[in-house]
Amino acid sequence: MSEEFRQMPHNLDAERAVLGSVLLENKCLPEITEILREDDFYDPAHRAIYSTFEKLDTASKPIDPTMVREQLETDGMLDVARGPTYIMQLESAVMSIRNVVDHCKVVKNKATHRASIQIAHKMEMNAYDDGIDINTTMSDAQSEIMDLQKEESRENIIHISEPVMTVMDRVDELRASKSNISGIATGLDKFDDNTGGLQPGDLFVLAARTSVGKTALALTITYHMSVINRKLGLWFSAEMNDTQLAQRLISIGSQIERGKDDTFIGLQQIRNPYHLPESEMWKLNAYAKRVGSAPIHIDDTPCIDISDLRSRAKYFKQAHHDLAYCVVDYVQLMGASNNDNEVAKITEITQRLKQLGRECEIPIIALAQVNRGGVDKPELYHLKGSSSIEQDADIVFMMHRHDDVDRALEYQPIDGFLAKIRNGQPMEMNMSFHGPTTTFSEI
């Protein structure tokens, strides 16, 4: 059979068996609606009849050939459903409802095959269109496929006992471990005590004005999560390249893990090692080896588009199921489908980052710029570009350096505060920024 005349996958016998089962025993409809939607039926007549079943059930009316025919006549759909004779045939074609779930699964499987073909066809058409960005095409297709996979195995309604059991299992685990950290520990003890650590699906926004240390704090947290605690992390850096990030992580490690009488290795010493004493080189090699073996992956594509980022992150998650978190540095440097409107662009980016966290079940750490100007500490409304950052974020942690702080100081005081938190209490944190190694710590 030639390609153009191939029929879409379907099984009409299974569709008739499902519909006949409902006519034979109305009580099986709720079980069927948990698996099938109207659009899952291939035959237009079967879609019309199934829709009528649902209407009658909603109205608490009996579902029998007479009532179905009357409702179809009222809706002007009796001819589409092939008339009353066909409806009578559906009822007489089924002797038992025992296999109705199996028949539903056959219908669902064929519907999934058809949806897959439609996604592939849409992707092909968009790929031929030069006016549609290829990254958007691939990201949209990937999202539709993931939605299809969820639909195929959907169990949207669950009894409260299931999440309660999950909660109590987690309580038992935490009590046994004698820890109050239910998520991923950041190394900032006061923050972790208040939040329980970074939680799967959360959008954690780290915001500050230029040169206050957003990337430095994110890298300090990364060192604790991935180098010390061995959590797999994915970094998208639109500002610094991978080498610069590696240099900083090595220097941060020399500050975090040095002994009481030991010395750190400053970032400038790594960048210009000519005057670094031989006695320090072994320490540099040791910290470099420690960072180099950490489960951190970096994508330093400049001005990466949000569709491309989501596609790469989801592909990475599929290949590495233990992905624990993702960092995006930073929101305002990313691209989107509407780059001409800053508010619309940022809104799209934050919404998709939030969606990405939910899809991959990981926390997303998104760095964001705060509007310049003013000496007072920033507020949520200072977030640059769009109020959607505040709306979509589960946590907004803001940083502020007072203008009278001497930048030449080795240790500089930085104010940190939780401006927004869904599950916790707003709080302030006194932090110290170690300039030579770009490392943050709590005071």
Written description of the protein model:
By secondary structure, this protein is an alpha/beta fold. The protein folds into 2 domains: 3-152, DNAb Helicase, Chain A, CATH 1.10.860.10; 183-442, P-loop containing nucleotide triphosphate hydrolases (Rossmann fold, 3-Layer(aba) Sandwich). The protein has helices at residues 12-24, 29-33, 44-58, 65-74, 83-92, 100-128, 134-152, 161-177, 189-195, 214-228, 242-256, 267-271, 278-292, 306-319, 342-360, 388-392, and strands at 203-208, 232-237, 296-299, 323-329, 364-369, 395-400, 411-421, 428-434, 439-442. Strands 3-2-4-5-1-6-7-8-9 form a 9-stranded mixed beta sheet, sandwiched between helices. Strand 4 (323-329), helix 15 (342-360) and strand 5 (364-369) form a beta-alpha-beta unit. Helix 1 (12-24) crosses helix 6 (100-128). The model has no long low-confidence stretch (mean pLDDT 86).
Overview features:
443 residues, Rossmann fold, 2 domains, alpha/beta, 48% helix, nine-stranded mixed beta sheet, DNAb Helicase, Chain A
N-end to C-end Cα span: 74 Å
Read across the widest sheet, the strand sequence of neighbours is 3-2-4-5-1-6-7-8-9
User: How does CATH name the architecture of the largest domain?
Assistant: 3-Layer(aba) Sandwich
Q: What Rg is obtained from the alpha carbons, in whole angstroms? A: 29 Å
Order of helices and strands: HHHHHHHHHEHEHHHEHEHEHEEEE
Mean pLDDT across every amino acid position: 86
Low-pLDDT runs: none
Number of helices: 16
Number of strand segments:
9
What about the largest sheet? 9 strands, mixed
Number of domains: 2
CATH superfamily of the largest domain, called what? P-loop containing nucleotide triphosphate hydrolases
